[in-house]
Amino acid sequence: MVSLRCTTAHHSLLGSPTCLAGPRRRARPVVRAAVAVEAAAQAKVSLIRIGTRGSPLALAQAYETRDKLKAAHSELAEEGAIEIVIIKTTGDIVLDKPLADIGGKGLFTKEIDEALLNGTIDIAVHSMKDVPTYLPEGTILPCNLPREDVRDAFISLTANSLGELPAGSIVGSASLRRQSQILRRYPSLKVVNFRGNVQTRLGKLKDGKVHATLLALAGLKRLNVAENATSLLSVDEMLPAVAQGAIGIACRSNDDKMMEYLSSLNHEDTRLSVACEREFLAVLDGNCRTPIAAYAYRDKDGNCSFRGLLASPDGSKVYETTRSGPYSFDDMVAMGKDAGHELKAKAGPGFFDSLQ
């Protein structure tokens, strides 16, 4: 794990007047200095250390978490109370290979989980679509912030939509979910691996390396660069990734204080929809070689509507299902699980064997 700490504020170096009170003695300057250093060290101790990846989007999500914590708890609004700890993950370091080729699950969370468990950080902020369906023993994810728009954005300098791209046009995407849904509707297009953070991908597009790309609208909005979107794809055109647009915050399972802080930020509607989608993913044992999409949301009647999709990377085989039921944790987890088993049965074991 490679980590770099960046504090959210400067700390004043003030000695303790109580400790320094008493008669002046010329022979004790070392003691005064030691007390001052000790007081300064105590002033630098953060109440919460937030672990995050170092990409601009990851930092934006960490800052959002920090600001919500400060607003909800007066003691966290004090100078130096919250520290941001940047952690490089495998997914950030290896950018020249598809995710599936370097391990798939946990590429953007493993090192952060390790820092959480060894006490380097107190909470971890994740994009929920990067979080494996299992959590490391000793950690818990009790909080989801309000979900952002789940749609994908189409970005191109030459066309207004996927349908306008000429045959043979190159679309850049590291996501097999996007690739399969693009090729299902537009088999004449070519999809190539396209890794890197949002700014890197936008730069590659402007340099003409691809004719178009797709990015999550949620990320563009959190970075205040949504104006780069040429158009938006409806969820009917492009079903989102499991938990797309949702931020999750983890802590150690025995850290009651952190759980108390995080419970004050939790958005329950988001937590339930994410739980439903992740249960669907868990049944299908989804990894970076399996194009899977899902979306659970509260409909106009207050119930949960769910859509799930399983596909082959080339879009030639697509299995879909829907569910509807009460917007409650147990019901929604059951819906996600049942939908996953349905598509697993429809696809058959040979389908999954072909993806290995």
From TrEMBL:
Single GO molecular function: hydroxymethylbilane synthase activity
Coiled-coil ranges from the UniProt annotation: none
Cellular compartments annotated: Plastid, Chloroplast
The UniProt record lists the keyword Transferase: yes
Record bears the keyword DNA repair: no
Span of domain Porphobilinogen deaminase C-terminal: 273-344
Source organism, top-level taxon: Eukaryota
Annotated keywords: Chlorophyll biosynthesis, Chloroplast, Plastid, Porphyrin biosynthesis, Transferase
Function according to Swiss-Prot or TrEMBL: Tetrapolymerization of the monopyrrole PBG into the hydroxymethylbilane pre-uroporphyrinogen in several discrete steps.
Name this protein carries in UniProt: Porphobilinogen deaminase, chloroplastic
Source organism (scientific name): Panicum virgatum
